[in-house]
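Hello,

Our lab assistant flagged a job as stuck in the queue for most of the afternoon. It eventually completed. Since we weren't sure the result was trustworthy after the delay, we are filing this so someone can double-check. Below is the sequence as submitted and the structure that was eventually returned. Let us know if re-running is recommended.
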Amino acid sequence: MSEEPVTIGTILDLCRDQYCRIAIRTLAEEQRSMTIDELSKVIFRDIYQTPITEASEDVLTDIRTSLYHAHLPKLAAKGHVTYDAERQLVEPTEQLTGVHSTLSTFLAGDSPAGIAD
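-- returned structure --
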């Protein structure tokens, strides 16, 4: 795990995907361990502005798969989260907490409709 310095490139990379942006914001605000399933539901509610009871399993599976295979491993490799793929558990690190103030400038403008990916 490396601790990447906060550069404009790092910020843009972290903010590139809507699922990743919502996961970062949620983990930084919650400051606790969360399961991939919990994060998936937060992402669904944020994007679709719909109760989770109305979520199709296909959409939730897409979100979980994207987190599991792409976003969480990437965040873990950069030292922003601790990620246990076997337990499907993710936890923010001090580094994510430290960069959140910088990220929040970009994430604050992320409306439910999202920034074009």
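-- support follow-up --
The delay was a queue issue, not a problem with the job. The result is valid. Helices lie at 8-15, 18-30, 36-48, 57-77, 94-107. The two ends are 27 Å apart (CA to CA).
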